[in-house]
Design a protein that fits this description.
This is TPR-like protein. The structure is a single chain. The protein is mostly helical. It has a single domain, classed as Alpha Horseshoe (Serine Threonine Protein Phosphatase 5, Tetratricopeptide repeat). It is 65% helix and 0% strand. The chain is built from 14 helices and no strands. Helix 10 runs antiparallel to helix 11 and helix 11 runs antiparallel to helix 12. The longest helix has 31 residues.
Length: 371
């Protein structure tokens, strides 16, 4: 089948390696699906921005919440950071930018003896906070330059620790997204997104002692599925936007396989909803892409069948995950722990995914065999 050949090749670039495991096939998978453009936006926004969003604080970029833990920062920049945060909260973005700029300049001049792994996380975290204020003030080009500088600071030979390398991946993903907003050349956007995928796979491979079976890999606590899946999805979206469907499909397939790995590994209901969202989109991608040259009638029938199969599986996966979120096991009431309860957020997200999958499958049924 054409889809299986595309997924098996995973041709992207010679330098992007996803290991020997075959991506999920539309005819052998237990999670196939169909797609709506708007629905895939749900998956992208919740997944990609879980890694590269910088709106509220620095916690998404390494656990440093600037608003609560100013004492972790070098004494040379604490005063400027405190003033920058205060000005931002008071709505004076120009003043906040000036203080952030001074702190950003100062922290880069600290003696080399103070430069540890935590230093690089603090350094780039400050740059991210500065760039975020610039973005909020409408200065996206300047923000882009700060993000580039932060990424560049993580390219030295001493950067070998996984969490620091993941920071560089997040920055590259952010740069790829912002390059699109700024309408920079496609090659520049592709450069950032490809680097993010290549680097996160190198990180995973190093942690797996040379193994790169993404769905079955035992990830260390500091690597989340979103750290791996978001760059895959973002690059897939880019290739889809430029019409390179052959490159986009394998990326989506690998993202799905990461979210719903084979047994005995299990995935959370929210991960399955994310996967269903991608499946839904993949269905429309198959349906709207040009099929390989074959007998016109045979190829059209095969194409529609593949797309509908993904639509059915998306609905099945979303239905099961939604049920588990709405009716969790009884033990969760007693052993749920003291952390934040995300069940309402997960339920809302899965409701959207479920509705989109249901609608898309309904479209297939409405059109019938004459599609």
């Amino acid at each position: 089948m054409a889809l299986r050949r595309q997924a098996g090749k995973l041709s992207l670039r010679a330098s992007i390696r996803l290991g020997q495991q075959q991506p999920i096939s539309a005819f052998r998978s237990r999670y196939l699906s169909s797609g709506a453009d708007g629905e895939r936006r749900i998956g992208t926004s919740r997944w990609l921005w879980a890694v590269v969003g910088v709106g509220s604080a620095l916690s998404l970029y390494g656990g440093y919440n600037l608003y609560q833990t100013l004492t972790i920062w070098p004494i040379e920049v604490r005063g400027d950071l405190r003033a920058a945060v205060r000005a931002k909260h008071e709505g004076d973005l120009e003043l906040s930018q000036r203080f952030y700029n001074r702190a950003w300049t100062t922290i880069q001049t600290l003696p080399l003896s103070e430069r540890s792994d935590s230093y690089y996380l603090k350094l780039t975290g400050l740059g991210i906070a500065f760039a975020d204020v610039l973005e909020q003030g409408g200065k996206k080009e300047q923000a882009y330059e700060v993000y580039v500088r932060a990424w560049d600071l993580l390219q030295g030979p001493n950067i070998t620790i996984g969490p620091v390398r993941l920071r560089a991946v997040s920055l590259a993903s952010k740069l790829g997204d912002l390059a699109g907003e700024l309408e920079k050349p496609l090659k520049e956007r592709e450069k950032w997104l490809v680097w993010a995928v290549e680097e996160v796979l190198r990180v995973v491979k190093d942690e797996g002692k040379g193994e790169l079976d993404l769905p079955m890999l035992a990830l260390p606590s500091w690597i989340r599925k979103t750290d791996i899946g978001a760059p895959l999805e973002a690059l897939g979206e880019f290739y889809e936007q430029v019409g390179n469907i052959e490159f986009a499909m394998p990326l989506y397939l690998h993202a799905i396989s990461l979210l719903i790995p084979p047994a005995p590994k299990k995935s959370s209901p929210e991960d399955r909803c994310r996967a269903a969202s991608l499946m839904t989109h993949l269905s429309s991608l198959i349906l709207n892409s040009r099929p390989p040259a074959q007998s016109a009638d045979d190829q059209k029938s095969t194409h529609v069948h593949q797309a509908e199969s993904w639509a059915k599986q998306a609905l099945a996966v979303a239905t099961q995950a939604r049920t588990e979120i709405l009716h969790p096991p009884q033990r969760s009431r007693f052993f749920g722990g003291g952390g934040r309860d995300d069940s309402s957020v997960d339920a809302e997200f899965c409701d959207q995914v479920y509705a989109a999958a249901l609608f898309n499958l309904g479209v297939f049924k409405e059109k019938g065999p004459e599609q």
